[in-house]
Design goal:
Length: 453
């Protein structure tokens, strides 16, 4: 009997006579190999397990069946559709959607511009990815499940819009009965790393925080100067991630602080790349990471939840604005205190050119940068819909005839009312635009926005 299916073989779905036909090999990993298949004229993927993996994970088949019966938490999960088997091949696998070639792995964000796998990133796209990741795992947890082995290899993103896909969903288990003893060093919660607890939702919260920190800082949150003391494969992993974890930006304990570039010959391994990124990260985001890797390291119940991350990433996304230097193309975070405290305008974190204060709108306690192409969503104007991004209600657009003049086009189905600095009131019906100039206010019905420039 064969060990793996070959190209052209038929794999049968569940206990039915429906089959898919094996195509090209897509990848080979520690658990199994992934092949493309055709089913009813459409491409899918099948993960077929290595023979030895069955003994390593005896509850795998039962867990897969539970996941299939439960259904995907949301459309971002490349979820098991059905188990597959063949009378001519030992073992089994599962059918899933085929990942679109446009999606890239999170590790690709770490490559420099001279590498073939380099992906251009903006802070707005990163905030969108962070939001989507947190939303995915909140949906998973709300179904009573935990991911168990959350790490950077499980997440893929579309560089164009930040859309996110979650793979390797055969690791998922029900939180109340999780038995799988797996995990990726550096992502496992300290109590799991020490062998004191099994993976659960609270350990997922830790792994999620690590993933989000690496997304923005491109470095691990617990690998500072203390990591240079140990051989990471031997003593380093249990000490840094289990028995003595300390955040590299801990405001009270500098024993493992990140080393700046040039401070040590091996500063690159101790957080040098994260130092400049941390300095420009708004304080509310810094506070969340300090909480996640402060109290959260020792008290699982104190970890940052997915809903808190989602709110923070929407706020962060709203604060991004582009550098005015046409040769730069990067975006920065608007920090009112930075503009007030410095004698001159703050400089772009990437090219060093002075930043031009952006057009912005204050909607209740929310600040939104009015960049060309930016959309407003229901969450901006309705506190009862904090995560509603389904359909934009407005978009910032340039005036068709007047250079430098921008407006907010009404994409909703209700009338807005705009008040100009002169006191004149102007109706803004659907399809029309409200001027975005200092002193203008726009009433959206449930909320009012004030424009500043």
């Amino acid at each position: 009997m064969l060990t793996y299916p070959n190209k052209g073989d038929k794999l049968f779905l569940g206990s039915t006579k429906t089959y898919c036909v094996v195509g090209d090999l897509l990848g080979d990993g520690g658990q199994g190999r992934v092949v493309q298949v055709m089913l009813d004229g459409q491409p899918y993927a099948v993960k077929w397990y290595h023979p030895y993996y069955h003994a390593h994970d005896p509850g795998l088949y039962e867990r897969l069946r539970q996941a299939i019966d439960q259904g995907a938490p949301n459309a971002s999960f490349l979820w098991p559709i059905e188990t597959v088997s063949s009378p001519d091949v030992s073992g089994f696998g599962y059918l899933m959607r085929l990942r679109d070639a446009r999606y890239r792995g999170l590790s690709d964000l770490k490559w420099g511009k001279d590498h073939k796998r380099y992906v251009r990133r903006t802070n707005r796209i990163l905030a969108t990815i962070g939001y989507n990741i947190a939303e995915c795992y909140q949906c998973l947890h709300l179904k009573g499940m935990c991911y168990v082995d959350l790490n950077e290899k499980n997440v893929f993103f579309n560089p164009a819009d930040g859309d996110t896909l979650i793979c390797d969903n055969d690791n998922v288990d029900f939180d109340s009965q999780a038995k799988l003893e797996v995990g990726t060093p550096g992502f496992m919660a300290p109590e799991v790393q020490r062998g004191e607890a099994r993976p659960n939702v609270l350990s997922d919260f830790h792994a999620l925080a690590v993933l989000l920190f690496e997304l923005f800082m491109l470095h691990h949150p617990l690998m500072g100067r203390a990591s240079l003391k140990y051989p990471i494969e031997d003593v380093g992993i249990p000490k840094l991630f289990g028995t003595n974890p300390v955040f590299i930006f801990d405001p009270k304990d500098d024993s493992n602080r990140a080393l700046a570039s040039g401070e040590h010959p091996e500063a690159a391994f101790a957080g040098a790349i994260a130092v400049p990124r941390w300095r420009v990260l708004p304080s509310f985001m810094q506070d969340l990471f300090v909480k996640a890797f402060g109290d959260g390291l020792h008290t699982p119940q104190a970890r940052v939840t997915e809903g808190t991350w989602r709110r923070a990433f929407l706020r962060l996304r709203d604060l991004t604005f582009p550098c005015a230097n046409p040769d730069c193309g990067n975006d920065n975070y608007f920090d009112p205190e930075r503009f007030k405290s410095q004698p001159g305008p703050p400089k772009c974190a990437y090219c060093g050119q002075p930043l031009k204060k952006p057009v912005r709108m204050r909607i209740d306690n929310r600040l939104v940068m009015m960049n060309l192409g930016v959309s407003l969503y229901p969450y901006h104007i309705d506190s009862g819909r904090p995560f509603d991004l389904a359909k934009p209600i407005g978009i910032v657009a340039a005036h068709p005839l007047k250079a430098g003049v921008i407006g907010l086009r009404n994409l909703s189905d209700t009338n807005w009312s705009s008040t100009l600095p002169s006191g004149e009131s102007v109706d803004v019906p659907p399809g029309k635009s409200a001027l975005l100039e200092t002193g203008v206010t726009i009433s959206f019905g449930r909320a009012t926005g004030e424009v500043r420039r």
